[in-house]
Amino acid sequence: MTKAMIKNGRPFKLVIEYDGSDFAGWQVQPNQRTVQGEIEKALKILTQKEVRVAGSGRTDAGVHALGQVVSFQVHSSLSFDELKKGLIGLLPKDISIVGMDELGEPFDARRDAISRTYRYVIARRSRAINRQYAWIPRITFSVESMQEASKYLVGEHDFTSFCKANGQTDNFISCVSDVHWQIDDGEIHFEITADRFFHHMVRSIVGTLMEVGRGKIAPEDFQQILKAKDRTCAGPTAPPQGLFLDHVEYGQNPHVFILNDKEQK
Amino acid sequence: MTKAMIKNGRPFKLVIEYDGSDFAGWQVQPNQRTVQGEIEKALKILTQKEVRVAGSGRTDAGVHALGQVVSFQVHSSLSFDELKKGLIGLLPKDISIVGMDELGEPFDARRDAISRTYRYVIARRSRAINRQYAWIPRITFSVESMQEASKYLVGEHDFTSFCKANGQTDNFISCVSDVHWQIDDGEIHFEITADRFFHHMVRSIVGTLMEVGRGKIAPEDFQQILKAKDRTCAGPTAPPQGLFLDHVEYGQNPHVFILNDKEQK
Fold first, then answer.
1. A66 touches B at CB < 8 Å
2. CB–CB of A97 and B126 under 8 A?
3. In chain A, where the domains are located
4. How many angstroms away from the CA of A129 is the closest CA of chain B?
5. CA B53 – CA A39 distance, rounded (Å)
6. For the segment A116-148, what is each residue's pLDDT rounded down to a tens digit?
7. Predicted ipTM?
8. Cβ contacts of residue B197 below 8 Å, gap of 6+?
9. CATH: 3.40.50.2000, 3.40.50.10280, 3.30.70.560, 3.30.70.580. Which one for A3-111+251-264?
10. What is the pLDDT of residues B49-94, one digit of tens each?
């Protein structure tokens, strides 16, 4: 199949939820079970053709998603309903469809995204139920200190101190538009919204905020770590199972109108 | 320490949470991984002796617990803290300790219980996250009809229609003191409190309530099914992964005072 043929296929937008526990992350890798790989496998069965899908962003092994957005184009005579029901049937239990739309124009889930929101869940006590969906640090920490330090994240910053160097990324500048905390007896949810996220960024931020929470770093020193642009200044990377890609925002694009007018369930 | 305690060992009350997904249920069975078996294994390592533990009730394979109560007595020179930390360390990740007390008198988690509350969780849409903690029926149903039918459960009834016959139980009479529904966009929680529960009772009730919800049985006919005392009249047994043993109540017993005065976390 040529690139031109892919370009001319019917464009779709898919919103999915997945449990990252048993995936080697989002991106296709040889001999590994990945989210992208499972979706492409299902689409190949349905359309009898190789289909390449794009996600709004990669997630690492063990990281979950509540609203990952996926774009792809297919050549198929199947109706929208047939494709959707086929996907629901063929995808494994740890991937579920939140919404699916057929669009009037091509759409790129990664390039067209204007912001992404990640959620990091920290459990306040040891637990058996839901243990795969949170970091359980088993230490005493002050959420108030973490909240205070997290205020320094908002705005445009160079996040080099919180990113894994990869030799591919020109710069680690990102604009964080919001950080939000939800705190109850059992769990702490830290939400962060930005235009760009880099490899390990949220997990490094949370790992460093936890160092603040347990008193190893003062909240005001968190800003110095950010300004240092040096990964060795920051704390450890928090574990993947607490991290969720929550949702992705797209700007209004008049070309990307929805062809299917059915309510998505 | 009384003579009885020296003979029988120091009595403990343990409250645990467990994820039933990977257990063949509560009760010890040869060559099976069970909750009781894991606790007894940990206590044997700590005390160097065979310890038999009692649970407030058995749970089937795949059924979870948020507050299962366990009683046991040990001969050990270990302090309360040593035993507790040892148990925390030795128990697998899918069993966690909610509370532990050393008592002044023997206590039987099963016989001393005055009521048990089970919770059954039904998911309103397909989902990947938390799929192991709910029944996902993938059909349209009316919660209002289910709520209406569930009112007939309250009171003392013969629950033969909702119990798996086992040849051991004299009668299936139970007094249901309360049924309670919590309903939100994503999940429906059905809670039922009674003095006794029988094998498959909650799951058969929920399976039959779902037949009401989907319109196969009228809410008022639910009462006739209860009165029929015939298992063949009721609906199918709902799957185990939606069921949680929520909590167990014990009457005030002046003999069962708590020896450890530390706050349990």
1. yes
2. yes
3. 3-111+251-264, 136-238
4. 5
5. 47
6. 999 999 999 999 999 999 999 989 999 999 999
7. 0.86
8. B57, B116, B118, B174
9. 3.30.70.580
10. 999 999 999 999 999 999 999 999 999 999 999 999 999 999 999 9
Q: Kindly determine whether residue A19 and residue B97, on different chains, have CB atoms separated by under 8 Å.
A: no
- Amino acid identity, residue A256? V
A46: Cβ–Cβ under 8 A, 6 or more apart, which residues? Answer: A74, A76, A78, A82, A83, A86, A87, A90
**Residue A101 to residues A21, A40, A44, A73, B38: CA-CA distances in angstroms?**
27, 17, 18, 12, 48
d(CA B87, CA B74): 13
Q: Determine contact, residues B176/B159, Cβ cutoff 8 Å.
A: no
**Which token pair is B72?**
């046991």
Of A93, A125, A127, the CB nearest to B131: A93
Give the span between the Cα atoms of B92 and B18, in whole angstroms.
10
Helix (H, G, I), strand (E, B) or coil at B221: helix
Cα B241 to Cα B136: distance, rounded to the nearest angstrom: 10
pTM, full prediction: 0.89
CA distance B20 to B240: 9
| A199 alpha carbon, distance to own chain's centre | 11
Query: What are the chain A neighbours of B245 within 8 Å (beta carbons)?
Result: none
Tokens encoding A206: 């949370």
CATH number of B136-238: 3.30.70.660
Nearest to A129 among B66, B88, B265 (CB): B66
Distance separating alpha carbons of residues A253 and A69, to the nearest angstrom: 16
